[in-house]
Amino acid sequence: MNGFSASLTLAQAEGGATSVWSLFSESFDFFSVILVVGSLVAVMLIARVVMECRASVIAPKALPKRLRENLVTGNTPEIERALADDESIVGAAVQSAWRVRGKGHRAMREAAEIAASNACSRWTRPLDMLRIIGELGPLIGLAGTVWGMILAFVRLGQAGGSAGPTDLSLGISKALFHTLLGLMLAVPCLLVYGFYRSIVEKHCNQAMGDAGEIVDMIPEESA
Asked: CA-CA distance, 223 to 207, in Å (whole number)?
């Protein structure tokens, strides 16, 4: 019971309870600003990943089926219409190959591979940014903790070592709060990165496989 109460009220100093919010406001400095800004960026990236990293967005099944049917029937206008406004990996790869179909299948495959790789980066880039934020968060928090500890002991030295245990523990709590912020930033970022990385790779590989099959079906355009 005492441990649970201590998690809600961190410390008591100078006759009053120090809440989490007051501890945060008193510990607010350059490192806290970086961690708060990083948290806001991470929230936006996580929202983007959750909304966009889906099979229906990365590797939709309707477009490959539509392209195969029109390639079999040779319906060129319908193929170009299907590729016009599509931003998926299959659409980007096939569209690049379609533009150079007069140069042969080798040129079409090379163009499709480059376009597919660039299209995949649209979904892998936010995940890489989440990983970077997640790895830097604890380091920035640790740097803030070290800085806070230095300031706490400098004040202790300036007071001639007369500071009481309560004053010292409160200063150390403020310093360690940076580490807590860094960990709170890192955990969701790395969790989302680890969960969605394999999902994105799976959908990208599926889309690139579909794109390769469709590119091989494109007839060479006679000069």
From this structure: 30
Q: Where are the alpha helices (DSSP H) in 9-75?
A: 20-26, 30-52, 55-58, 62-73
d(CA 151, CA 24): 16
Provide the residue range defining the domain that includes 66. Answer: 61-217
Q: Which residue has the tokens 């500890």?
A: 149
Tokens 């929230």, residue located: 43
Average pLDDT, 10 consecutive residues per value, the chain (223 residues) = 39 46 70 91 94 86 88 86 83 89 88 90 91 94 87 73 65 81 93 93 90 88 59
> Domains in the chain: how many in total?
1
- What residues pair up with 17 in beta bridges, in sequence order? 12
Q: Which residue has the tokens 């955990």?
A: 187
55 belongs to a structural domain: no
What's residue 1's pLDDT? 39
Domain-located, residue 181: yes
Q: Is residue 35 part of a domain?
A: no
